[in-house]
Amino acid sequence: MKKIVTVIGILIITIGGTLMYLSHMNYWPFQGDKVTGVPDGEIKNVRSQPSSDELSMLLAASGEVDYNVKAKTMDVYFDVYKRDKRVRHERVTAQAGEKAAQMNSRFVWGIPGSDMFAPSEIRVIMRNVQESYAQNTFVIPKGIFGKENGDSARTQPFEDGKIKLGEKYILQLWEFNKKYEAGDSNDPFSKEFLKGREQTVILYMVFN
To answer: Do residues 128 and 33 touch, judged by C-beta distance below 8 A?
Structure first.
């Protein structure tokens, strides 16, 4: 009898734990209209080549971001800094509502071509669970790339975790110097980081 009770107890714990995990990660049958594998209020850095047909051409740089979050807006910006002075602030795309609402999407971006230091445009797609999507192309203003030497670039240098409203999640970062100098890269938006570079270009997303 005790063995039966023990076995039943183990089964209840196992099944209960499995269901809790499936619910936490928004897997079936708890998915609803949310992105699977991403807990509520979190962002996931998908470290793979985008599989979307719309971006399947040769890409110099690309990335995917999954998120399930309650927010009023999600904006993607393209900023250009000369030392620590921001000289350009362009909106690439946005997702917004009149009030805070649940946003569940896979955001896909790509830079066509073979040279990430000579990009001409950025293509983006926002896809939801129902497979409907919005697509946009941002034409990069001329004269931004190709002036300085010592190029360095990083793609999506952030980790999975809870989304902080107002925090800037970098999708692509370009650094330019006449003479390359390694520096502190913990916060590319800090004055200390920006002052150490001739030019910094940042593609990023932010939730509010």
So the answer is: yes
Neighbouring residues of 200: CB distance < 8 A, sequence distance ≥ 6: 80, 81, 173, 174, 175, 176, 188, 193, 194
Query: From start to end of the chain, where are the E strands?
Result: 42-46, 59-82, 85-112, 121-127, 133-139, 152-155, 161-162, 168-176, 199-207
The DSSP bridge partners found for residue 67 are 43, 105
Instruction: Judge whether residue 21 has pLDDT over 90.
Output: no
Residue linked to tokens 């230091």: 117
Neighbours of 114 (CB within 10 A): 8
| Residue-wise pLDDT tens digits, 37-65 | 788 889 999 876 665 555 656 888 999 99
Compute the distance between CA of residue 142 and CA of residue 181 in angstroms, rounded to an integer.
25
Nearest Cα to 95, choosing from 64, 72, 114, 119?
72
Please, what's the largest Cα pairwise distance for the chain? 80
Q: DSSP letter for 119, please.
A: -
Phi, psi of 136 (to 5 degrees): -150, 150
Residue with the two structure tokens 């800037």: 168
Give pTM, 2 decimals. 0.87
DSSP of 29-70: TS-TTSPTT--TTEEEEE-S----GGG-S-EEEEEEEEEEEE
Pairing mode of beta strands 168-176, 152-155? antiparallel
